[in-house]
Design goal:
Helix content: over 70%
Structural class: mainly alpha
Strand content: under 5%
Radius of gyration: 19 Å
Distance between the termini: 18 Å
Length: 83
């Protein structure tokens, strides 16, 4: 029974990691597209003409992706320490 519980726990950890990685990939694509379009709209709205808002939005998307990536690494490291 203990071996089955351990295998189930490992399976759940792997599925959580897979879900985080797949969401990271989707977030990369969607965040960059939304940041580009949103920044472009803000540049047109405020008439900045130097892509300030577009660069700010894309930078925010990059930071969000890196934070999610580091959270994934931190979670995996904590799981290894528990064992």
């Amino acid at each position: 029974m203990d071996s089955k519980h351990k295998n189930d726990k490992e399976h759940i950890k792997m599925l959580n990691a897979l879900a985080t990685v797949s969401s990271l990939g989707m977030m990369a694509v969607i965040d960059f597209v939304l940041a580009y379009w949103g920044g472009n709209w803000l540049d047109d709205y405020f008439q900045t003409d130097d892509h300030t808002w577009r660069l700010a939005c894309i930078s925010l998307a990059i930071v969000t992706i890196f934070l999610t990536f580091f959270r994934l690494i931190y979670t995996v490291m904590l799981d290894k320490d528990e064992e």
